[in-house]
Amino acid sequence: MHAALVGLTIRVALICVVLFGSVSGSMLPFPLERLGFDPALSSAPFVAALVDVTGRVTYFSVAALIFSGTLLKFRTARRRYSTPSAIAAYGTKPATTVAAIER
User: Where would a tag sit more exposed on the chain, N or C end, judged by fewer CB atoms within 10 A?
Assistant: First the structure.
């Protein structure tokens, strides 16, 4: 199950990064030329750095979106304190309830 989600995450992120790199690489020379810079010399390093940074942000954003309901679940206090070993250790359930934590 999780392997399929990892594959989906990589696939979607890779498509987004390639599309963004292509669009930014083809459109960046126009503003650079308007600003007076040589677009042939400065666009390749700038596009490479821009795509590297946005690629990481895109990958982690897609991963957080896809895994938000599966691997990124937060443990609740109810699950932590309702086990028999926790009840035996504390004697009773702690005063902090799930409703108080969720507020």
Answer: C
CA distance 37 to 27: 14
The Cβ-side half-sphere exposure at 75, using a 13 Å CA radius, reads: 6
Judge whether 51 and 24 are in contact, CB under 8 Å. yes
Angle of CA points 7, 11, 15, to nearest 5°:
170
pLDDT, tens digit, for every residue of 33-48? 898 888 877 667 888 8
Give CATH 1.10.357.20 domain extents, the chain.
Answer: 2-72
- Domain 2-72 sits in CATH 1.20.1250.20: no
- Residue matched to tokens 């990481």: 56
